[in-house]
Write a structure and sequence with these properties.
77% helix, mainly alpha, 10 helices
Length: 313
């Protein structure tokens, strides 16, 4: 994808969703509504976390960064997806493809790490509440989020350096709606073993993070069961149920994408599973947190009350 790799492919052709040509306009409008709702929902959470003192805690600080990730992932992928859906297919330059792939990888890796950090935060809050304030002090949340973003961008940068050493000198048709690594590797006319090893390493890291999340929630559930009062158990579970729902949805789609074959009918299925991960998950994350979290609902209620009061005066 650079001059150094001596690739003769200057552009790639994204085929998009040619299976839904008869529903092109409704599909476009559906994606447009999902994108606008994603921007509004995640933007609202960032504003609430930044401006409401009631939401000043490590959990909501991490949630604000998770919402920022969702906005960036959706903005990186959805505009080109809308163009592909509306036009039926779309050309994208090789450098634009590499740029999209870099930022998608950076934001996706960062989101995975943030979800892991949030599970650790919930573990400390429920399993070790006496030491929570001293461990999760004012500095640690900032360090953890900065480290999450830094690791995400470093991994994405390494992947793109490896990808830029691959030659693309044959077909340039990508049966996908954005530039993703697996369909790009199928177009390569050089050795892709290094990139495949990098993908395998990232997959292992992701599975280790998932195992960490599972272990922390096993400990959390054990601690919740030991709480004597039903009100205490309900309150403890409500603080982590939203995060657990998001983790299950996010990793569920990722695992489904990775275990689905990349040929024939399964290729189309893999495309739509990827659509769930890049469009539906960023859309549902703020809805899940706002519907299942009392603090978020109360903050939204206060904003509505303030607006009504201002209109009256």
């Amino acid at each position: 994808m650079s001059k150094a790799n001596k690739s003769s492919v200057a552009q790639f052709l994204l085929l998009g969703f040619h299976e839904v040509e008869d529903f092109q306009i409704p599909f476009f409008l559906l994606l447009m509504v999902a994108y606008v709702t994603t921007m509004a929902g995640n933007g609202l959470i960032i504003v609430l976390v930044s401006m409401r003192n009631q939401l000043y805690s490590p959990m909501y600080y991490f949630l604000g960064h998770l919402s920022a990730c969702d906005i960036l992932i959706s903005t990186n992928v959805t505009p080109k997806t809308l163009q592909v859906v509306l036009a039926g297919r779309c050309l994208i330059c090789a450098m634009c493809c590499a740029t999209q792939l870099f930022f998608f990888g950076a934001f996706a890796f960062t989101e995975c790490i943030l979800l892991t950090v949030m599970s650790y935060d919930r573990y400390l809050a429920i399993c070790d509440p006496l030491h929570y304030a001293s461990i999760m002090n004012n500095r640690l949340p900032h360090y953890l989020t900065a480290l999450s973003w830094m690791i995400g961008f470093i991994i994405a940068l390494i992947n793109n350096f490896i990808l830029m050493e691959i030659n693309f000198c044959g077909p340039n048709i990508i049966d996908h709606y954005f530039c993703d690594v697996p369909p790009l590797l199928e177009l390569s006319c050089s050795d892709t073993s290094l990139m495949e090893n990098a993908i395998s390493s990232i997959t292992i890291i992701g599975l280790l993070q998932l195992c960490f999340v599972i272990v922390t929630y096993i400990c959390i559930f054990i601690s919740i069961i030991r709480i004597s009062s039903s009100t205490g158990r309900q309150k403890a579970f409500s603080t982590c149920s939203s995060h657990l729902t998001v983790v299950c949805m996010y990793y569920g789609t990722l695992i489904s994408i990775n275990i689905t074959p990349s040929r024939g009918y399964s290729l189309n299925l893999k495309k739509y599973l990827s659509l769930l991960n890049t469009v539906l998950t960023p859309l549902l994350n703020p809805l899940i947190y706002s519907l299942r979290n009392n603090d978020i609902k109360k903050a939204i209620g206060r904003i509505r009350s303030t607006r009504v009061a201002l209109r009256i005066h």
